[in-house]
Amino acid sequence: MELGVFYILAAVIVVSGLLVVTLKNIFHSALMLILCLFGVAGIYILLHADFLAAVQVLLYVGGVTILMIFAIMVTHQLTGKKIKHYNEQPVPAGLIILSLLILLIVSITRTAFEVADKAEPMPTVAVIGRALMTDYVLPFEVVSVVLLVALIGAIVIARRD
Amino acid sequence: MATLEHYLILSAILFCIGVFGLLSRRNAVGILMSIELMFNSANINFVAFSKFINPDILTGQIFSVFVIAIAAAEAAVGLAIVVLLYRNFDIVNIDKINFMKW
Amino acid sequence: MIEIPFINLAVIYPEIAIFTASVIVLLVDLFMKGEKQGTLSTITMLGFAAAAIIASRQWFHFETGFSDALIADNFALVFKLLFCAAGVLTLFLSVHYLNREKIFRGEYFFLILSSTVGMMILASANELITAFLGLEVMSVPLYLLAGYDKKKLLSNEAALKYFLMGAFASGILIYGIAFVYGNLGTTNFDEIYRALQGKTLYGEPLLLLGLGLILIGFSFKTAFVPFHSWVPDVYVGTPTPATAFFSIAPKAAGFAILFRLLFKAFAPMMPDITGILWVLAVLTMFAGNLIAIAQRNIKRMLAYSSIAHAGYILIALTTGTADGAKAAILYLLAYTAMNVGAFGIVILLGREGEKDLSIAGYSGLSRRHPIAAAAMALFMFSLAGIPPTAGFIGKFYIFRGAVSAGFIWLAILGVVNSLISVYYYLRVIVIMYMKPEAESDRVITYPLSLMVAIILAAWGTVQIGIFPNSWLNLVRDSVSGFF
Asked: Is C173 within the bounds of a domain?
């Protein structure tokens, strides 16, 4: 049962991911990206990461991709001119990637992981929240600095003056 | 039961798709999408490792939270730059960039 | 109830000082009316000075904090001091330039400061995720600085290229970190070191792959060949003072984390990867120097020369010894002085709109502007590694370290590359002194702030070159506790 769900989600992710990088119409690519990110959220649920799945949907699907669609709509005339973008050198790039993929898969299958047989705490929010306030308080604050810089920087760059 | 290897191979495929898009796309927003795929594949790895290696402390999931935040910040900055280039110079495709150039 | 653990803030005092300054800059910029450049640059300067004073007072304290995610040993502190110096020098370079190009806005200082915060975190990171986040804090402002001259196409393109390359590198880096975490169950450098005991790299293909991806991710920042293709375009398009900053500070930060990663966390695996580093070093030196010869634009030439200099420092990294680390720090200090000086002269001789950047345009400069020509000659001599300048001392210790660690061929190839580089550095001097004066309506004013930067850089270049002893002591102390 679980394996079946995994394969369905994996198929959704791989197919939509491939479409993201190959579709001629960039707007369709963005829609496929949304599907792909939903699939990843499903994988998180399968891995019992409920909080992350919610974050994925809210932040990625709801935030980042919408931002991208806005950018596409600002930079392309949606009506009239056709939105197209081309792939260059897909064959050499594909060959490089194929060898990278084989390398990765061989490495993964040949590594013996020490799988721990412990149950994870449910719900995960409490544990994550506590860790963010104790052991990971510094990275947490550093992320806030990144977000501040990105916020101000994006305004500075995109503002007319 | 889906094992750790299942998830790792899925993430490897997603990572490779992202790199492929990066090498072959000529549109800045398209490249940004490919980069998001790469970040997502890293996140699948983190969460899978978290579940299978040390499930009781969830470190991998916490790392994923950070990665998602960083990805959002990068997307905002990148799209701001794209909008700037388009508005001032009407450029979206970056034909002059060749990622495979030495 | 959440048990709040003891937090040792001392380990991030310098970062706090800089970040506070950056926020004050933003607020003052928002609420102050009228001429504010003087106020803002003073605040920025005070922030750097405060951070530098704090960092120098922590010398030999070896603070650690945040579950050992950060460590403020002397090695980190010397880099923090270097970032402060680079920041202050960049500030002096910027004031006149921003006015000349009419692109002054308060956020410029904010971006420089917040980028420095990221570099400091990177230099003292003792954990992979912290290092990744530090890298992002450093990089995001740099992308924006590259595109700071919004009306210029080149600057915009530089921002886009830098951003896409940087984001790509981040993606590779985080994927590699995930593999290391999955294999060893930890991201802390000390724990990685313990977990690696008794393992051979080739028995762990995924770990090898993870380490390789992490190295590639950081190699983009330090611009090793073949991960350098963004450098020339970004350096040329970026406003010149920011280019000077790019060529020094992020590079030093990248080396800081690479040293900590390879000499501390992955030290047991170091012998397995010296071969790769060896090849990278040779490629980086040759590509940088040979392509630099063909350049006609001074900024482009300095861009390729900065790639070549990263190659020399990579020699020090390859040796894997304490002497190598010392030589690398000394070289970075020397490189900061001489490169800021060279870019200072480029700004001095430039005109509004970034014109007059061709090397041929410097012909006969010595007759009309003897001081500028002499200063440029000094920096070119130093970059070429001719005694008695800082560049010579830096190269001398790097090559000596390589020979004593048994990397004779690497040292020989380094010397060969130094000789190649003499050709294009000396060509600038020959053009300035031997060629007839170019028909030019070049008017040089000598703005005070720019002169301060150039004089400081010249002082550093000569000081390290002639009296290296105190610097050698500093460098020796800075690796204490690291090995």
From this structure: yes
What is the reported pLDDT for B97?
47
pLDDT for position A88: 66
When mean pLDDT is compared across A49-53, A86-90, C328-332, the lowest value belongs to A86-90
C20 vs C459: CA distance, rounded Å: 30
**Which of B16, B56, B86 lies nearest to residue A75, judging by beta carbons?**
B86
Give me the residues of A, 133-152, that contact C with CB < 8 A: 133-139, 142-143, 145-146, 148-150, 152
Segments making up each domain of chain B, as ranges: 4-96
One domain for residues A11 and A79: yes
Looking at per-residue confidence, does C112 or A2 come out higher?
Answer: C112
Round the CA-based radius of gyration of chain B to a whole number and report it. 17
- Whether C257 contacts C122, CB under 8 Å: yes
Residue A108 maps to a domain: no
A115 lies in some domain:
no
Distances (CA, A) of C127 to A132, B15, C170, C193, C277: 16, 24, 16, 11, 22
Q: What total of structural domains would you count in chain A?
A: 2
Same domain, A35 and A90: yes
Q: Specify the pLDDT at position C37.
A: 86
CB-nearest to C205 from A111, A137, A139 is A111
Which contiguous run of DSSP H or E holds residue C65? Answer: strand C63-65
C383-417: per-residue pLDDT in tens?
Answer: 999 988 999 999 999 999 999 999 999 999 999 99
Domain for residue A112, yes or no?
no
Architecture of domain B4-96: Orthogonal Bundle (1.10)
**B49-58, C66-75, C103-112, C439-448: least confident range:** C439-448
Contact C160, C150 (CB under 8 A): no
Token pair for A53: 């799945």
Task: Please give the span between the terminal C-alpha atoms of chain A, in angstroms, as a whole number.
Answer: 58
Mean of per-residue pLDDT scores for chain C = 90
Mean pLDDT of A116-130: 80
pLDDT for res C453: 94
Residue numbers of the domain that contains C306? 9-478
CB contact under 8 A, C107 and A152: yes
Q: What are the chain C neighbours of A126 within 8 Å (beta carbons)?
A: none
Domain membership flag for residue C4: no
Quick check: A84 pLDDT over 60?
Answer: no
Cβ neighbours of C133 in B, within 8 Å: 66, 70
Domain count, chain C: 1
Say which residue, B27 or C459, is predicted with more confidence. C459
d(CA C70, CA A149): 22
Interface of B with C in 19-58 (CB under 8 A): 22, 28, 31-32, 35, 38-39, 41-42, 45-46, 48-49, 53-54
Q: Do B81 and C182 touch (CB under 8 A)?
A: no
Domain around A16: 1-102
Contacts of C4 in chain A (CB under 8 A): 133-134
Among the residue ranges C177-191, C303-317, C347-361, C454-468, the one predicted with the least confidence is C347-361
Q: In sequence order, what are the beta bridge partners of C65?
A: C70
Tell me how close the Cα of A62 comes to any Cα of chain C, in angstroms.
21
Q: Tell me what the mean pLDDT of segment C153-157 comes to.
A: 84
Tokens of A41: 């959220």
| Chains near C (3 or more Cβ pairs under 8 Å) | A, B
**CATH number for position A13:** 1.20.120.1200
- Is B37 in Cβ contact with A132 (below 8 Å)? no
Measure CB to CB from residue A75 to each of B4, B20, B83 and give the nearest one.
B83
Does position B102 have pLDDT exceeding 50, yes or no?
A: no
pLDDT of residue B61 exceeding 60: yes
Residue A139 inside a domain? The answer is yes
Give the integer Cα–Cα distance in Å for C450 and C97. Answer: 9
